[in-house]
């Protein structure tokens, strides 16, 4: 009788142990599967914004490279507009510095300022030197710069959309738990300050 009780108790113990083991295994499976799912989701979002970032950088660099071509094409006929050319040279220098730094905010401000000063030059050409616009090379460069600005605007929107998706995954539960484990942080939007988007004023009477 005593042996039967021991057998029954051992059987119960084994049964309880198996149940605990199964529960632990299921929990590990659930958490492990969840981690893999959210980790893959975060990685995909990261890869997407990095790709969009590359496209944006290419568009920005193309525009920056076109600016001196336009300047060189019109500079000989616009010798008195030294202030305009000086502003463009400074804006391009600041853009190149910001691009090398990798700081998103600085690059956004610098690119906005370069766009504003370049637009200022184009306005000067149209208003004060209309004959230059009939030059095929000048017109082609102006059209290319306009196209580059359109590509930049499109690339910026795509980049910011990708950043929004990534940031949401980083801060929202439960993917935020995985993001913390992987030390993944939110990223800055490519957005310039309002002042950086304004072209410097040029007094054409001086």
Automatic annotation (TrEMBL):
The UniProt transmembrane annotation reads 15-36
Q: Where in the cell is it found?
A: Membrane
For this record, an example GO cellular component is:
membrane
Keywords recorded for this protein, A-Z: Membrane, Transmembrane, Transmembrane helix
- Record membrane topology: Single-pass membrane protein
The similarity comment for this entry is: Belongs to the LemA family.
The record ties this protein, via PANTHER family, to: MEMBRANE PROTEIN (PTHR34478:SF2), PROTEIN LEMA (PTHR34478)
Query: What protein is this chain from?
Result: LemA family protein
